Amino acid sequence: MSLKILSVVGARPNFMKIAAICDAIKEFNRLSTGANIQHILVHTGQHYDANMSDSFFNDLELPKPDISLGVGSGSHSVQTAKIMERFESVVVNECPHLVMVLGDVNSTVACALVTTKTLCAGNAGGRDFIPKLAHVEAGLRSFDRAMPEEINRIVTDSISDYLFTTEASANENLLREGVPTEKIFFVGNVMIDTLLRHRKKAAESTILQDLQLAEPQGTKPYAILTLHRPTNVDDERVFSRMLKAFLDISKHMPVVFPAHPRTLKRIQEADLGDCFVDHFIQGPEPWDSRVRIRLIPPLGYLDFLHLMSNAKVVLTDSGGIQEETTILGVPCITLRENTERPVTVAQGSNVVVGSNPEKIVKEFNRVNSGGHGVHRSPRYWDGHAAGRIIKVLVNRFLPDRAISIPAYEAKAEELRQN
Ligand code: UD1
């Protein structure tokens, strides 16, 4: 007896999420006798640079993808269409019971659409069927349809059969959009599963020494900056105004900036190189003249986790980093006008400030002078989210192999009553 799950990754934030799912599947197969989950991992190739993809597979000890679609970059339509075209034959050949997509990237929506439109041949004279679709990290909404990810989320959720959510706001959004309660499963955050599992290993990273932030008397205070949203980096005026704020901040402490390839391109095109020092080529500048941002290549998972864990503050337009800093208790200044992850503001260490330089500096000053409130871990961000997902799927597809995960069991009744 076997359940065949085909899961899809494509872009950087997917890799941390699938790592937790892979672990939970491995655990199920180890515990279970007689039944097993056959897991096929597909990599679309949306991200392909070694430091955007391979390094995550190594750090997270992910299995090599069973199938690589190699689509690469392109406009949204070209990229989405290429993934759809190549993924269709994968579904037809593999005939999985379930396709699992994660997050909100183009690979997510492309493979979700294909899944719901592909008829698979039933085996041993069984009926032809359309695989079920599961969306991990369902229901998040920024309510900003100018964001490509928002469209990806809405479309994926509207056609999914299993919607696994990370926070209460997501449940409310889905219910408001008319998704039946039976399809919604509040399981927690698989990315946080991965963070909790890798924190100890990440502490062995030498990144603080490599960046000359470790000193005999302790770690130097420093800020991390990540920025890659088209709304922030594609408009030269917006981007250069924001850079002024980061330069201001770099007068108080080093600002370490692992730059996404899209952002690096924009820096080159807009000739903004003077704002930066390339840390690994030019080395850090002496403290007194450190009024430039320290540019470094994108970091692997473990190095970035260690760097983030020790930062005084993180400035970012990423979604996942708002969640990770919430668990780490590191102040996060979100460089966007909205967030689809409101729990990170209500319970975490996140403040949404947008791209206005005065607001960014003001919030930095507040954090730097110790004005950082207490934070709590959101509900179910406890390292067991992927286990809950596998439990739901096993109970549905392999009912006589129902598994019990104590942390989930304890809260399941409470959840049903909410
Ligand atoms: C994508 C996701 C975004 C996510 C981000 C994480 C969508 C719509 N966006 O944005 O939600 O937060 O990933 O990183 O799916 N490039 C490279 N090498 C790579 C990958 C990309 O050089 O390995 C360059 C290419 O010039 C490409 C550009 O980066 O055109 C943008 O890549 P793309 O995957 O289209 O979007 P991201 O900005 O990475």
Describe it.
- A seven-stranded parallel sheet has the order 3-2-1-4-5-6-7, sandwiched between helices. Strands 12-13-11-10-14-15-16 form a seven-stranded parallel sheet, with helices on both faces.
- Strand 12, helix 12 and strand 13 form a beta-alpha-beta unit.
- The chain has 18 helices and 16 strands.
- By secondary structure, it is an alpha/beta fold.
- It starts with a strand and ends with a helix.
- The mean pLDDT is 93.
Number of extended strands: 16
Beta-sheet strand percentage? 15-25%
* Average pLDDT metric: 93
**Alpha-carbon Rg, integer:** 22 Å
Tally of DSSP helical segments: 18
Largest sheet: 7 strands, parallel
| Fraction of residues in H or I helices | 40-55%
What structural class should be given to the helix and strand makeup?
Answer: alpha/beta
Bound molecules: uridine-diphosphate-N-acetylglucosamine
The rough form would be described as globular
Strand order of the largest sheet: 3-2-1-4-5-6-7
Low-confidence stretches: none
